[in-house]
Amino acid sequence: MMIRILTLLLAATLAGTNCFSQATQPAVAEDFKPSTLNQPGQEYPQVNSQGYARFRIKAPKADSVRVSLGLGGRGGTRLTKGDDGFWTGTTEGPLDEGFHYYHLTVDGGTFNDPGALNYYGSVRWESGIEIPAHDQDFYALKDVPHGNVQQILFPSKSTSTSRRAFVYTPPGYEKEKSKKYPVLYLQHGWGEDETAWSNQGHANLIMDNLLADGKIKPFIIVMTYGMTNEVKWGRMKDFSIVPFQTVLVDELIPYVDANFRTVANKDNRAMAGLSMGGMETHTITLNKPDVFGAYALLSGGVYNPEELKDKSKAKLIFLSCGSKENPDRVKKAAADLKAAGYNAVSFVSEKTAHEFLTWRRSLHELAPLLFK
Question: Does pTM surpass 0.85?
Fold first, then answer.
């Protein structure tokens, strides 16, 4: 099952990463502006109103400069050298809305863009660029009450070290000393780490805005490293869930319940993950059905009624993906689960692939369904 899911994920990633139509593109609008993810004072990279990206790199002694976007750096935009030593180029076509990783290849070497901020993905710190989305309001930074994202270090006997997690607590948590909260354990994908959901995913801003609009019940989110990057891409069939399952279920959850005001039972504990984090969610929730009361796979495969048979029944099963992935499979899986008596919900993010706007939208749809 895991090998099949991974094959589908790789196919979706290849289809959705920096693949431009060979059809004639409209004229490129010359209304480029600096990306919102640029380092302070940096003019490039830039994005225009159509979603094209333009790059400008100073490398006077280089012979070749290329920009590679997406997981693993497949595809790319070749830059042209000017007399001033700057290399400039524009993507062949518009990129999907939302966040994209990228890096530079300069004379065969891999480098980050000095004009852009860096984000951990593809098992390294990559440059990031944001294509403004038409629906970006739901994850925008607004003048609303904000929760807190704090780093915690929790002891792990199984790995003989202290491990790190980030914990989102909703607005008012520090003041309401007697109130207890449900918890969502939210996992990143392969190549990423526990910083991804806050930095690339804006999970805290999504929560703040939903809470300000009165659309969700407040809950805590816990994000930790899924131990996925020890396995190289292409060798994921060798990944063992056991070490991470031990860290999560036997070490992290007891630590969170002891140190935060949680409602420490199955019905008030959920697990979700994107991509490989979804596969971790799938496996752990089947292995430990008495620990979590709600499951969510975001571009991370599906459940079927047979594998859930004779398990503790989840209150919610949420399945999602981008419209450029495998939406029919996700919708059919949810329909099959509903027919078998499960509370299953599917969501498809329009015009996105295996990328963070898919997962931002998925969290935005999932959160109001949790802990009702």
Answer: yes
